[in-house]
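Recap from last week: sequence in, structure out.
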Amino acid sequence: MLSSSARQICGSLVVSLINLLGGASIPLSSIIIPDLNLSVEESSWFASIFTPGILLGSLAGCIYCDHIGRRASLIIDCCGYLIGFCIIGFGGNNIHMLCAGRFLAGIFYGTMYCSMMVYICEFSQPHLRGLMGGLNVMLFAIGFTVPFLLNLVFHWTVVTLSLCVPSVIAILGLALLEESPVWLMRKKGEEKAAKSLKFYRGEECNITQELKDMKQNLSVSKESQPNKLLMLKHKSFYRPFAYLSFIMIACEWSSYPVLGTYMITIFQQTGSTFDPKVSSLIVCFSRVIFTAFNSSLLLRFPRRSMYFFATSITGLSLFLLGGFCYASTHFELPEILNILPLVFIVFIYIGFSLGYGTIPIILQGEVFPPQMRSIGCGILLGLQMVSCFAAIKTAGYIIDNMGLHGLFWVYSAVVFLVLPIAAFLMPETKDKTLAEIQKGYQ
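Predicted structure tokens:
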């Protein structure tokens, strides 16, 4: 028999397998396009069609994820990924099949985002939520790295079809889990919510007080916001939503989309001494390692302190990278310093992994009212995708007018702007129940 903590961690790992699929679906275009004889137009469609798929999925997730349940929604997402990977893997050189499969993967990435972290936060105890959130982001980083590694040995069709294996494992794992107790309390009643809590806490655990707090919190939410339209105007929703919108949009303007899209080109332009492909793998591995390290830190330290520390690392690394790019174009630097771009980019991702990019994801599953969590996460993802597109689209214009150093200095300014905003608005949610967090916003 598993202990209460082990039950919740195992459940979190099963759910996080879906995030691994999401991470793996992003770089598929990077390994597929070089092996195909595609025109520029076809390549751009295959690479970019993932984003409108995510936008459509985030809108759809807002509508149905809360109606059918967190677990049921995630099972549909896994099936969608499975179909999408099969269409791409068996699509051959047919650009229409390839785009259809990638668009489908984007849709289910969007719907996954509406329920995944919400589900984890709703069945986990306060002292474990940080660990589970860290594990979730770590599996995303592993998923992002896996296609690059497998592609060193296997053809892209084998790499893509191999992703069907974790898809099937996730479906079977989710079938063994119980639905979110918070969702069941809202939709099916106290008896089914108690059964779910017993599953995640163990038969020996006394769940009376937790059920009471859950019921009371839902009752307060219904009294203060009788329907979802009115809830959008209530401070318990718009206060955390406004703050999270700012920091999630700022994260997209902190170099990560641009580095992910143009990393090899950036290594070439900055004069790094390492092979660009090797440098990219080093960055991916460092991201995985420090995200795993972050999981243990989230158990020990307050979220706000970790966020400030990680944000400072990110901002300083971007500023120094910009300084190196400026110096390399104006001065003759010693060859030994050409390792610095790799060092700075690794530290940019270390800052992301230690909290700048991970803690806001955890907060999304914690701070919204119970009946608005899927809607809040879906709208935030939509805003992120628009911001991501804008950041990638404008990067070339910024470089043309301000230079590569100017691009990184703009991004560092955005990151440093986040610090005072977080100081005033970021909630401390460590070791607090979801009911306690909601009381703070009521």
